[in-house]
Structure formats: C-alpha cells, structure tokens
Input
Amino acid sequence: MKRTGSQILLESLLLEGVDTVFGYPGGTVINIYNDLPDYPIKHILTRHEQAAVHAADGYARASGKVGVAIATSGPGATNTVTGIATAYMDSIPMVVITGQVPTPLIGNDAFQEADIVGMTRSITKHNYLVKDVKDLARIIKQAFYIARTGRPGPVLIDLPKDVQIASTKFVYPDSVELRGYKPTYSGNVRQVEKAAKMILAARRPVLYVGGGATASDAGQNLIQFAELIQTPVVTTLMGMAAFPTAHPLSLGMLGMHGTYYANMAVTNSDLLIAIGARFDDRVTGRIAAFAPKAKIIHIDIDPTSIKKNVRVDLPIVGELSDVIEKIGTKLRENHDQIEAFPELTAPWRSQVAAWRAQYPMSYKFSNTVIKPQYVIEKIRKLTDESAIIATEVGQHQMWTAQFFNFSNPRTFLTSGGLGTMGFGLPAALGAQVACPDRQVIDISGDGSFQMNSQELATLVQFKLPVKIAILNNNFLGMVRQWQELFFDHRYSQTPLELPIDFVKLAEAYGATGLRATRPDEVEDVIRKALATPGPVLMEFKIDREENVMPMVPAGAAIDEMVLAS
Output
C-alpha cells in the first residue's frame, strides 16, 4: 500500500520508538501536521523553534532516547540552528526535521526558503536534503542510526513540501549499512594491557570524567573502576552527574570554576585517565601547563577527539563501559599488584585530602541578603535524589555545579560546549515530558530566563509541573564578574536595571509565582513551590555582586586560581 511522504515520516518515527515530538507548524510542514493526529505520537507545541530543539535536547538528555523536533522552512529552520549547535557540542542524540520549499523552487529565493542543509553542515553529525520520496524511509532509518550510535549527535532531515505530498510504497529497512561510518565499540586488547600497566606503575593517578560517561551510561562501571583502584575522580561540567559528587573519591569539577583540590590534583598527578572527555579549554586553562607531570590515557568512542587538544601517551578508542571493564579485568588478573595498589597510592590521597581541607568549597552566609549558593543548597536539601536539574548559562550554572551535589546520572542538564543562554527552561520542559513522575527544576539567572521565557505558556498548556528558580541579581552576572575583576568595575551594558516583576509574569501565563527577598524566606518558598501542582516560578533576589569562586583567569594555568574576590 502506498503512503505519502508525510505518512512515511510519521510511520517511520513510530518504528524508531518515538512517542513525543516537539515542534512548531508552518506552511512547508502543514502536510505533516495534517497527518499527525492520525498517529499515536504526542506533539508538544513550543512557542519558538529554538525552544522546540532545546526541549528535544532535554528529552534526550534525561531519557537517553533520541529527541525529535519539527520546524517549518526559512525562519523556522534558521531558528533551530542554536539548538542544533548546542546538541552537537554536547553530543546529544537528536533528529531535527525541517520543511523545505518544493524541489523545483529550491535555489530560486522562494518565499521562506533557506539553505538549512548548508547552514548546519558543521553542526550536525550528518544532514539530508530529501529529493525523492522513495529515499525517505531509508534516510530516516539512517538518521536515527547515526544520531544514537558512536559519539551521539544531531542529524537534520530537510524535507521539501512536494516530497511530503508524493506517494510510494512504504518499506522500512531492517538495518543500516554505511560504508564510511563504522563506530568502534570494543577497546583494543593491547592498548588495554598497556593501560593496566600504566595504572599499576602510577603513584598519583586521577580519573578525569567527561560527558561521554553519561552519554554511554557508564556510571556504574565508572564507580566500580574508581573503587577498584581507589583513585580520585574529577569531572567536567558535562560529566558531573556521571559520578556521585558525595562519593569519597570525588573531587568535583575541575577547570575554570572547578574546586581548588580538583585542579591541584590534576596539576600534580603522574597519570591522568581521561574517560569520555575532550580536554576543553575551560578545563585545561593554559595547555602548556596542564597536567605537566602526568602521562595521559585518553579513552573515547570518537577517534577524532583523541589528541585533538593535548598530547596523549595512550589512546584507546571504544565504548567507555567496554574499555573500563576490560581494564578492570586486566588489573584483577594482576591480583597481588592491584591488592597492594591502594596502599601505594595512599600518600597521594592524603595529599588530596589536605588540599580539600585547606580550601573547601564555601561561601560567606549572610542573615540580611540571599546568597545564591544558599538557594542551591536548600533546593538540593528539599528535593529527592532523582530530581532533574536544568540550568541556563552564567553564574547560576556554575553555582549549581559547585554546590548541588549530584547523585545520579542524567540529572544535570546544562549547555556545556556552546554555553547557550535560554537553554534551561525548554530543556526542563523536555525532561519533564520524558520523565513525568520526577521532579524537574530549572535553575536560572534573570538574564538567561528572558531568552526563552515564553515557554511558560507551554508548561501551562501541557500541565508540566516544572519548578523554576530565578537567581535574580539584575545583572548579566558572569560578564559583570569579569568586568569587576579584569576591567576595573566598568559595568558596560551588564546591569539589567529595568525592574521586572517575574511573579506577575508567571501569573500572566497562568503559572504560580513566588518570591523571596530575605534568607529566612528561602526555604519556605522552595517548600511551597514543590508542594504546588503545576509550573511554579520562584524569584530569589540575591546579592547583586556575589562572584563565582574559585576562578582561573583567561590564559592562566588551572593551579593559578583566584580563590576569593
């Protein structure tokens, strides 16, 4: 039986296990939207195409599934670009479907035409312009396979209107065979043996964990591996929830706003085992001074990430759980050595503990003004272990990373690589759709929140009980902090002086609004928000010039931290 292109798309989505899509209709996707009610696929209508892609991103991060977003051509497609780039930088599996003008009009500057394939070539794992309806089922199968395998990432399918209308016999492929795309999953045995020998020879080892550990669901293997060798663990912003922050071996985040003891441990280590991390500049600081005494083992499923930014003594390409498990097995074969290893590295753990005691993560509490760190700690105290936390980008993002203490994987959703303001609210929306029975909280700054505040309407329409905590300092806080420290307090275009009543804004959309202006009001506001059905916005009027510390200045080594402002 024949199917139209739009029907083939929707039936293919069902065969890929898609239960939810996020999108915004328009002229070149009207056929898809006309057929959509005939299929058991939930559609979440966001109020902006960028938000639709961020919501699909949050859905994917929280669930581990492929997120799906739909947008029309022209401005609808171009509005997806920031969301696609965000997902690409953070390796999030996603398929974005954009409408396109009919194929005879492509290249003629038709109404709402844009070359979205050309625009997104550098920010997708792959993208397609479908020219024949007979190719559509195969392309969709390939798109989902590419998005979820290897190093995950976004794939774009540009679907002209005439291809959506055309019909053909629907046959969905059983498998995918791409000659130029063969991800390596199994770690090389010889490299694994070398890694085991390097670990046993080390006396100051550190595990350096990135977002790949979350993407590959390697959390349990990682904990077992760290406990086997009793080695301190540092994480990137993206890798934070992959290893419990409260674990005795955890040193928290390293890098620009990392803990003192994490940065000192990496700087003084003699072996750095990088697991699913890409040595981002926010982590390394001045590369010439990064882990100068250490040999480096780099484990990653993406061979192009290895040796990209730093020298590597031993590369291992493969799926993280596979490689970690194989190294662990090889270490256990050296029974006597692995039994003695924790005692040999005990002085190193004592040194790390001394650094932690010398400069613990802390802040100065105030009885008169709300400190943002205090709000983060209270939210952590009052939420359950499985709560999903999304953030925007800025000071509040770093305070969340420093003070929330995550326990479980896929509970910290944040834009790491691209640093996208406006990410958190729609990402929280998507996470709540993916996990309807869990607490989802968006921690935001007043600047970031206004980038996609219209998604309050989406929360209300779909009865999504996301709680929003705005840390309001009436500043673009992170830029202001740099201006204070490095530009002689010259606050150029960072004060947000126009007073916005966020409580009334929430109420205007039909949500609940709450506010705290004093420290003694913080806990009551959070408790009330968590007990209130539906979406709730909490505004906390915080200390306006509180800074994120420690901080590594631009161009400095990660052990050259500014510890206090």
Notes: The chain has 24 helices and 20 strands. The chain has a mean pLDDT of 97. The first strand starts at residue 2 and ends at 4. The two ends are 70 Å apart (CA to CA).
